[in-house]
Amino acid sequence: MTSLPEPSAIKLGLVIDLDICVGCQACVVNCKEWNTSGYGAPLSDSDAYGAQPSGAWLNRVHAFEAGTGADAKVVHFPKSCLHCEDAPCVTVCPTGASFKRSEDGIVLVNEDWCIGCGLCAWSCPYGAREMDPAEGVMKKCTLCVDRIYNENLPSEDQVPACVRTCPTNARHYGDLGDPNSEVSLLVAARGGVDLMPEQNTKPVNKYLPPRPRRAANDTPMSLLAMADEATPSGFWKWVDSTLEKLG
Amino acid sequence: MRPAWSIIFFTSISGLGFGLAAWVVLGFIDLVHPQQIFGVGGLVMLLIGAGLLSSTLHLGHPERAWRALSQWRSSWLSREGVLAVLAMLALAGWGWHVFAIGTPPLWANIAAALLMAVTVYATSMIYASLKTVARWHHPLTPICYLMFAAAGGLLAILWLQAFLGQGQSNAFELAVLLALASAWGVKLVWWQIAGANGSGSTLASATGLAGLGEVRSIMPPHTSENYLQHEMGFVIARKHASRLRLVALGLGGILPCLLVIIDGGSAMGIGLALLLHMAGVFVERWLFFAEAKHTVSIYYGHQH
Q1: Are A128 and A140 in contact (CB under 8 A)?
Q2: What is the reported pLDDT for B118?
Q3: pTM of the full predicted structure?
């Protein structure tokens, strides 16, 4: 049923720290690796070794630059499904293949029902859904539903693959419906934000903006100026004064 | 948005079919002989059916298309499918009634015509309901679809009247001209105002980085085009947009009107007018997709 369920008490999702992400793409690769052999059809590629390689990925890392001059900052920006509470991709689906779980809010695609019309991808403002080029069904982040509830895995592995693999700890997973969960406290402490709040999709995933940085000096000190200011001592003082005499 | 030929053909041809069907059930063409009933009915069914069949061509799994009839509670695409099936059933029932019993009562004819109109409305709402495409998400979008269906249908009626040798009135010709003019008039307004203010989203709101100052995209997440850019980042048409609008208006509006005025009595002349009109509607529908910008393109550095 593609009508949205009543908002669930548990809202599982991700919190992504833009202050920490270095854009290493490890989450992208581990996401592809896990999901090509997990839930649903493999995540296929087309022309993988050719001139125009393309393929379905559930997580992609953009890079943006924000600010100007010496204060400009490069921000690596991982983007995947935000598991929106008011998910337009669910209600537009004509077959009932696209659905939001009432128990934990995860948005999934039943690939056996999907007709591959692509309307859900059109309705998502974030570009979180991609058509599988080989299978002809819509693929999206499952929040690694086949890991997080999988009791055959050690407890430290019962988190989404992208979170497990992040070498900088920029990705956090938890229940954003519980105001006292670690992720909720993190969002509150760091002023976590929704992406495109004006689209009224009420995303569950939150992004932590980079921490404010000390403003750069108006006139950055040049290396030459630093060298001029430096007053040598000891051996270097003798070299300095001897060279001055020669000159 | 990528203009898929199957979708352009579907919306234009089924629109013409439903428009023609509405005028037929309202009695704008005299169906006396069985061959007229089956001929005209068959033509309408062919137009609608070809459109619907075409719409399944872009699917990843056309064999599952029947599943699309299930989610009419929430999905405009599903509603369109259900209504199209109902409309074709109603049309078949109407044709059978005309053949076996005689013209159905007025209320039934009006109800059938309304069903055709609601189906076209549902087609338009597949696009107009998407908040992510500002140009489509406008109250005039369904009006455009309905007006083109009505005008194309009337022009087709005029052609059928000439083709079947039925008398045409000047008043009806005038109605056809008015319908064509109003359809393109609404379209001209739509081109000016629909989505003119963008989606309301910016790279700053899309990234949550507004606090850092102006945000620029410096690197895409991959080395070559992906599905999102292929499907929603279509930009080829934009530089020719104003010329193509003139082509659409000329083919779909001005030339058919001139032909109706000059050669209003001949099946050949009006047939040509109808073909030109549909060519214009194809161009208009191609632009409908090609010119539309999706919010996801913001992440790829496009202004919105």
Answers
A1: yes
A2: 98
A3: 0.91
